[in-house]
Design goal:
heterodimer, A: 3 domains, two-stranded antiparallel sheet, B: 0% strand
Chain lengths: 639, 215
């Protein structure tokens, strides 16, 4: 008769905790053997043109974090102009004179920012943050590093495509940045590049389009790879309803990228033709610019661009948020030590969200005069899409109920994500109603709304993910104390940045004013908040210093930790600590026996978590002579 | 240890210079019924549908909102395009024949059919070049009006897709002997995948022909 609360591993009976340890030990030994016997991989193939999903994930992470900092810096420059319109930047303490020299006389003559340069900063801040920082971080970095590990795969389905995906992204990003050095500077028609403005804009816009084509190619290669990997390379026993929610989120995200980006590629080609071949896809007849009639044939439709652009860019919003929700789910399940509340509803809501995100795009265009019938349709779909978001948020909040929460740094970020995303989501509802949007459209209210979703929402989720998976990637833990400083300062500063924007927006301050509303009478009562927001934004930069230091310090000097540092259940923690590159992920292919979040399983007291790959505990044998039957049941289950 | 866990190397392809064995690169995964490449190409084609779908939508929107729109059959050369239509359909048949012959183990005939497919590609591009040349001679450029703008963009992008297919067919022909000898199943799969792509390119043309030339 098998001993109580023990499981059979091979021919032995042991507690799950011991089984897990034995498994880890065996994997470690096998890894060491591989390290010794594995043949040498040249540096350039291991670290530059790597096909290993883990290294590509790290490449993506470091590149995307760099772009995140660059995008952030562009905004900090804009905030100077908004706080002190027309004041020379040489007045900035310490770095002022250097900054003015760096930006050059053509952009900041005498230290004062030109409106054209302000527009470039705005357009490039949006572009860099969305396409070069957050999507690559959420999908390229976390997706690449975690998904194959979580599904028990040796690598992505197409490792070479994976490499190509990164090597389209990096040149695309560099091309985008290089556009600052072209005559007339970078793209300056907003990240949305609305025509006709974008078609008559300077050279930088052409570079923007070419950069976008590279980025679209990169995301296409990546999304095909992710979907095939998730469908084809799941470990034995890992059925779809046993996938961690993070994998589901990445799957839905990949479908969005796959199907939503091509229309933007088509639109980019058309805009390129408008700019270089003299066509007029987006140029209406009779357009007069600065008193000169345009010589193009005309007959085009500027609204067409908006439709094609938002057909991508609305699903893109969910591309930004879904991986974040996935990370938060993992962190919450792990730190509440209980299963996620409503896993099935989470999955259903995630998939429904994906579908719906394709039919809400025109709620960005209520003010274009496309007609009340169309507005009513998109208003309805917009209200419908809020339901799955609420289901996801509710499930995550309910997961906290009755838990003895471990307040680790990733968990702090996850806990902050919930109300922050909640604020972002709820403030979106008035924007989705055509009537309310008349007042709020293109004001700072919109900026506040989507930044609450993306900045303290997604970016906090990204931080949670970095703190959570750092031990897996490096074998070391990030410093908790610095992490907590980073968290609390960021949380306070980021709210001081975005909360007053609702206030400004409700007062009617337009989001595109170069002077922050100084010359508008209705902005007078709220204009003081520009300085407050800017100060908070600059402090937010200071708040990132502990993180940047912690990140690099911990890579080399962080506290060493074991393979399953957080006592988690999902498969990535069954792989070795910092799995070696160019050798696959698992010494033996893992087999999955249960769902992803088996924490605090009732009646199982050996540990408060049951990893997915630990064999099933047999049903307690019946009182009479159950020994043989029990063993047979185990044998049957395992075969 | 877990006695039932099968070693990684039990399933999957056998590309020699890649040391990590990815499962199901050659043979179908039982529960999904496809091998990786096949699922990959179907997904890629789905994204292509969205790409051309956006362009067709553009055509519809611009045309319906234009006060006047040139008639395709008055501006474009229908006989040449008809020849091209049948030419592409024929090439879709020959690429299937190439794949079928590979499955039957007849490499020589497969190469013949691949060659014919490639030739059809050349004929298509040749005819297209003649069409473009005539348009330019009559001073019809993309900038002339939105009819020619959509014509040049859509057929141009389609032409690039044909060209892409031709490059792959050339590669498949050049590497046929070596690959077929070493990795017969994998080579056959590659022809199948390229064939799927080629059918899609054919299908796009079947939509382009009536919408641009006949309406």
């Amino acid at each position: 008769m098998p001993p109580k609360r023990q499981i059979r591993v091979g021919t032995q009976w042991m507690y799950a905790r011991d089984a897990q340890r034995a498994l880890e030990e065996a994997i470690r030994v096998s890894e060491d053997e591989q390290r010794e016997h594995g043949h040498h991989v040249p540096f350039i193939r291991k670290y530059v043109f790597s096909t290993d999903h883990k290294w590509i994930g790290i490449q993506y992470a470091i590149t995307a974090l760099t772009f995140l900092l660059i995008g952030f810096s562009l905004m900090l420059l804009m905030r100077w102009q908004l706080a002190f319109p027309g004041r020379s930047m040489t007045e900035i303490p310490i770095i002022g004179s250097f900054l003015v020299k760096f930006l050059g006389q053509s952009n900041v003559p005498g230290g004062v920012m030109l409106p054209e340069f302000y527009n470039q900063l705005g357009a490039m801040h949006g572009t860099i943050m969305v396409f070069l920082a957050i999507v690559p971080l959420a999908v390229g970095a976390f997706g690449n590093y975690v998904v194959p590990l979580q599904i028990g795969a040796p690598d992505m389905a197409f490792p070479k495509l994976n490499m190509m995906s990164y090597w389209c992204y990096l040149p695309g990003g560099i091309l985008m940045l290089s556009s600052f050095f072209f005559p007339g500077g970078a793209a300056n028609s907003g990240w949305t590049s609305y025509p006709p403005l974008s078609i008559i804009a300077t050279q930088g816009q052409t570079i923007w389009i070419l950069g976008m084509v590279l980025l679209i190619t990169s995301s296409l290669l990546g999304s095909v790879n992710f979907i095939v990997t998730i469908f084809q390379l799941r470990a034995k026993g890992l059925t779809f309803m046993r996938l961690p929610f993070f994998v589901w989120a990445q799957l839905v995200t990949s479908f969005l990228l796959l199907l939503a980006f091509p229309p933007l590629e088509a639109a980019a080609i058309l805009q390129l033709m408008d700019r270089v071949a003299g066509t007029s896809f987006f140029l209406p007849s009779g357009l007069v610019i600065s008193g000169t009639p345009l010589t193009n044939a005309g007959g085009g439709n500027p609204l067409l661009w908006q439709h094609l652009f938002w057909f991508l860019a609305h699903p893109e919003v969910y591309v930004l948020i879904l991986p974040g929700m996935g990370i938060i789910s993992e962190v919450i399940a792990n730190n509440t030590r209980k299963p996620l509340w409503g896993y099935k509803s989470l999955v259903g809501a995630g998939v429904f969200l994906g579908f719906m995100s394709f039919v809400v795009w025109a709620h960005h265009m209520f003010m274009t005069g496309m007609g009340t019938v169309i507005s009513a349709f998109f208003q309805t779909t917009t209200m419908i899409i809020s339901i799955p978001s609420v289901i996801i948020l509710t499930a995550l909040i309910m997961s906290l109920w009755g838990a003895s929460i471990r307040f680790t740094v990733p968990m702090l970020f996850a806990l902050a994500f919930l109300p922050m995303f909640g604020i972002g989501g709820l403030t979106g509802l008035p924007l989705g109603l055509a009537a309310a949007d008349i007042h709020l459209h293109d004001t700072y209210y919109v900026i506040g709304h989507f930044h609450y979703v993306v900045a303290p929402g997604t970016i906090f989720a990204m931080f949670a993910g970095i703190y959570y998976w750092f031990p897996k990637a490096t074998g070391r833990q990030m410093n908790e104390k610095l992490g907590k400083i980073h968290f609390w300062l960021s949380l306070i500063c980021i709210n001081c940045v975005f909360m007053p924007m609702f206030y400004q927006g409700l007062a009617g301050v337009s989001r595109r004013l170069y002077d922050g509303g100084a010359q508008y009478a209705h902005a007078k009562p709220v204009i003081w908040s520009n300085l407050f927001i800017s100060s908070a934004a600059w402090l937010l930069l200071v708040a990132q210093i502990p993180f940047i230091f912690n990140f690099f310090y911990s890579i080399f000097k962080g506290q060493r930790v074991g393979a399953n540092h957080w006592q988690a259940t999902t498969l990535e923690w069954a792989a070795a600590t910092s799995p070696p590159l160019a050798h696959g992920n698992f010494a033996v292919a893992p087999v999955v026996y249960r769902g992803p979040y088996e924490y605090s399983v009732p009646g199982y007291e050996a540990a408060d978590y049951l990893p997915q790959n630990v064999p099933d505990e047999p049903a307690l044998p019946p009182a009479t002579g159950g020994g043989m039957l029990g063993a047979a049941a185990v044998a049957q289950k395992e075969s | 240890m877990t006695a039932h866990a099968e070693p990684l190397h039990a399933v999957g392809g056998h590309e020699e210079h890649h040391e990590i064995e990815i499962p199901y690169t050659v043979h179908a995964r039982p529960d999904t019924g496809v091998y990786n490449g096949k699922l990959g190409i179907w997904l890629f084609l789905a994204s292509e549908v969205m790409l051309f779908g956006a362009l067709f939508s553009t055509l519809i929107l611009l045309r319906t909102s234009a006060p006047t729109w040139p008639r395709g059959f008055e501006e474009l050369n229908i006989p040449l395009a008809t020849i091209n239509t049948f030419n592409l359909i024929a090439s879709s048949v020959t690429v299937v024949m190439a794949w079928a012959n590979l499955r039957l183990g007849k490499l020589k005939r497969a190469k013949l059919f691949l060659g014919i497919t490639l030739l059809c590609g050349f004929i298509f591009m040749g005819i297209k070049a003649v069409e473009y040349g005539t348009k330019f001679q009559h001073h019809h450029y993309p900038s002339t009006n939105n009819f020619f703008a959509t014509y040049f963009v859509m057929t141009g992008l389609h032409g690039l897709h044909v060209l892409g297919g031709m490059v792959v067919f050339t590669y498949l022909l050049l590497t046929a002997d070596k690959w077929y000898e070493k990795h017969r199943d994998q080579y056959t799969n590659r022809v199948e995948i390229t064939g799927l792509y080629w059918h899609f390119v054919d299908l796009v043309w079947i939509f382009l022909f009536p919408t641009l030339y006949l309406l």
